[in-house]
What we know:
Blueprint: E1 4-9, H1 13-27, E2 31-34, H2 40-51, H3 57-74, E3 79-82, H4 95-104, E4 111-115, H5 122-131, E5 140-144, H6 155-161, H7 163-195, H8 204-216, H9 218-228, H10 234-243
Parallel strand pairs: 1-2, 1-3, 3-4, 4-5
Helix pairs in contact: 2-3, 7-8, 7-9, 8-9
Amino acid sequence: MGQKNILLIENQYTQFENIKDLITVCCMDEFIVYPDIKEFTTVADWVRISLNRRYDKSRRDDALKRLEKYIVSEKEIDLLIVDHILIGHTDGGNGIHLIKDLQSCNIQLPYIFLSRTPRNNRDVAKDLRKELQVTEPHQVNWIDKGYANIGIGTEDYFNRNVIPIIKNVINMKEKKDQLAVDRHLNETINGIIRINSFDIIHSKEFATKVQQLCDEDKTKFIAFFYNRTSTITKDDGVEFLKSLKLIQ
């Protein structure tokens, strides 16, 4: 599966550190949990400002844009783990508002709400999926933090109640992403078959598009190519693959 990137959004540093450590201990090298210690305050400020209606809209929008960039291009996040209460006054939004704002930026990631609020049941998750307009069960989960008298949940609690859900969500996302890659590759191969000629696909625009798909999974593209292009001669196929520098 390879290491996956998790963004943990928590407004209290002590809880952030505890949860980050628990995930790291329970999962070893499976996940990288962001932000790192040095970035915590910066990321927490983006969240706080974007949700705080006491700030003007331009400042809130700027904070959200910075958070979006961090998630999409800087860290390439696979999963968001979000606390529900992120601002300590009534003028601010909560974790659900934050997810809605990120959805408006076209960030379609799975979310896990890890909250002290005792709402860990299927009905709440179902309501959240409806509110956040997602259709797949793995996309939204609500988990109690597992508070005991001494504080946040123990390693045993996380291993039993939190880590299995994280792994399942990541696994489901990986399968969904792979299906999307397969679909794009299929569409490309089908296009080649329909053309039945290599004249048009030697154009720079088409070659660039196919190269982008190849970069996602070079081996699979080659397998698809040879398995699906029976109407095209092998020599032409080889020349095309050479033109894309996929084979020597």
